[in-house]
Hints:
The complex is a heterodimer of chains A (about 500) and B (about 70). Chain A has helices at about 5-20, 30-35, 40-50, 55-70, 75-100, 105-115, 115-150, 155-175, 175-205, 210-220, 235-245, 250-260, 265-275, 280-295, 305-315, 315-355, 360-385, 385-400, 400-410, 420-435, 440-445, 450-455, 460-480, 480-490.
Amino acid sequence: MTIPLILLGLTAIFALLLGIGARSGHAMGLEEWTVGNRGFGAALVFLLLAGEIYTTFTFLGASGFAYGLGAPAYYILAYATLAYVIGYFLLPPVWTYAKRHHLVSQPDFLAHKYDSPALGIVVSLVDIIALIPYLVLQLTGLGIIVGAAGYGGISNTVAVLIGAGVVTVYVIVSGVRGSAWTAVAKDIMILAVVLFLGTYLPIHLYGGIGPMFTDIAKAKPGFLIFPDKGQSVWWFASTVLLTALGFFMWPHSLASCYTARNAGVFRKNAIVLPIYQLILLFVYFVGFAAVLKVPGLKGAASNLALFKLVVATMPPWAVGIVGAAGVLTALVPGSMITMTAATLMARNLYGAYNKRASNDQIVLLAKCLVPVVMAIAVFLTLTGNATIVTLLLVGYSFVTQMFPSLVASLFPRSGATRQGAMSGIVVGVVIAAWLTFSHASIGSLMPFLPQAIKDLNVGIIALIANVAVLAVVSALTRRSTVAAAESTERHGT
Amino acid sequence: MKPFQWLAVVPFIGLLIGPMVHNRLHPFILGMPFPLGWITVWIVLTAFIMAIIYKLDPANHVVPGGGDAP
């Protein structure tokens, strides 16, 4: 056993014990297991929401993105900030409504608002299709991290199986409390690791942040600014906007908002979270530091940039600590996603089929589904299915399609009907899937347009179509459903 | 929208439009290339703007533990 492997093993045991211990004193009914009985204060909600930022995607992906593509990576820093601004206004009314009606999932919210169980089923299916690849990504990242930090001493398969086992156990035992408490450990570690690496490596290797960027600009002109076309400034602006809108539409993000003790938590967090996610800047610094020091990583291998540089410059025990932090960035979001996917299947799919199922039956079924969800994800991770990568791209545009209907439902006078919401979401999802799988861009679809419009993120098309269909179908069906709408209004206030 | 809530539009303008107006390497901001430095500065400004909105928002002066008015 080498030092890094011992550290990684200790991290897995620590996460397991912390996750299981989080249960103490709480009987795990449906609302307790899924949303912690809505009793979390600002600090825990903060960490759950911040947990969405520091996933393996940001740890490996942001550094790898900066390393491989340069300036376009800046978008990851910008979108969460705008998402928190949106959250300031969006989340308090959502939370208030969800508390009043004991809602525990995102499809719950739309189904209840539009008084349409069918809508809940459709939204759940779309959510599950988006969530599974996201879970696969976390497990794949876990395998990469353990492989790199353990110097190949433990196989990818074993690492993924151990990680999946740990998450499965503590999710079943403690639900969202397990995620929250492991998130505390994760954020302390990741903060320390990222701040240290992001300042030490540029200073040690280049003599400072400024000299580092000067050297990179000299070696690779244009790398640090947006290109003229393709991932241009227009791509940046449209992508930041789209991802900011979709941010809280991830069902596990919205569910973590339900854990708040009161609606003020979100408004308070909107001040602090932008600053907190500036830590990502230091992840970029590591990625950029790797550009000239460990050159030549291409494609998927660029995700290894951070670890290659750390292994090349730091002693083994430090590599072990970085790996341990990386493992936690996979486990915490992995646990949120697993729990959410199991909840959607039990509550919004089975629950819609068997309306007389009690909450105790639902939560029991959800716990039984946790290992099933995890097994599917492990299988897809280890078989390395290529479609997963495409599905992941499509995942974000899928969940973003919930945004128009969800926002419209918050305004009683928007006139959005359940037919409008359903058609808008279905059309948006179908177009998003088609655009992604055909690798279309606005430029390839409409080559006559000016370059700026061609560079816009193609997801914009799906969202515009969604809004248009929502508006038109709602206008057409409004008259016929006035009675139904009034009944919704009665239940809904 | 109450008037002070329009302040929330400012971060969108700063973050989205800024890089379009000046997509150049120089001047460096805090040792970073201009677009990255610009985004960083605007993230800090966004936190300030949200703090101002928080101060002005009457919803933050209700009793804790309760929800918002429906």
